[in-house]
Amino acid sequence: xxxxxxxxxxxxxxxxxxxxxxxxxxxxxxxxxxxxxxxxxxxxxxxxxxxxxxxxxxxxxxxxxxxxxxxxxxxxxxxxxxxxxxxxxxxxxxxxxxxxxxxxxxxxx
Amino acid sequence: xxxxxxxxxxxxxxxxxxxxxxxxxxxxxxxxxxxxxxxxxxxxxxxxxxxxxxxxxxxxxxxxxxxxxxxxxxxxxxxxxxxxxxxxxxxxxxxxxxxxxxxxxxxxxxxxxxxx
Lengths: 109, 116
Prior knowledge:
The complex is a heterodimer of chains A (109) and B (116). Chain A has no helices and nine strands. Chain A has 109 residues and is mostly beta strands. The N and C termini of chain A lie far apart (36 Å). Chain B has strands spanning 3-7, 10-12, 18-25, 33-39, 45-51, 58-60, 68-73, 78-83, 92-99, 103-106, 110-114. In chain B, strands 2, 4, 5, 6, 9, 10 and 11 form a seven-stranded mixed β-sheet that branches. Chain B has a four-stranded antiparallel β-sheet with strand order 1-3-8-7, with no helix packed on it. Helices cover 0% and strands 53% of the residues of chain B. Chain B is an all-beta fold and 116 residues long. At the A-B interface, strand 3, strand 7 and strand 8 of A face strand 5 and strand 10 of B.
């Protein structure tokens, strides 16, 4: 089955740039999406179609993709950005199969 | 304001059944594809199923195919997930979510516990 691979944890100091990667073979053909999930809350979309930011999401959140790797960048990370971040995409089997990465815990302190 | 409110979770024995509901409001429900996503306690998100706007097309994760059935009632603005032959590993918070070409809004989830 198709998998997306993320680092389990990323740690930065406030004001630094945090980068969270997501790798998977199908990413070269499929969009990547990023969700933020704070403790005890439902996920929130922060990036769609590789690099687009929904309204209401701070400009410090950006996304990029090169080949089979997508990257979520938080420029000037703030304490309130501490959360789990999940990438999401679909496989290329011809059937719709949604796939989440394992999630990356971002610590800002 | 888009609202998705799940209900129907609870404790069920292995092999049992449960039907989850998701009441939608604040948008034209019949125009949107919908998803179910689950999250086991302390674990990551896992995609479960998807249904198109009129209910004629469905997709499932391999882990639930043949046991779970997604459906919808556009007249009642409600999404359903019928879960049969439940296993301990199905224990999770189940979220419904709206698709706008991608999943944008999520409900707060309902907890399903499968245990004897």
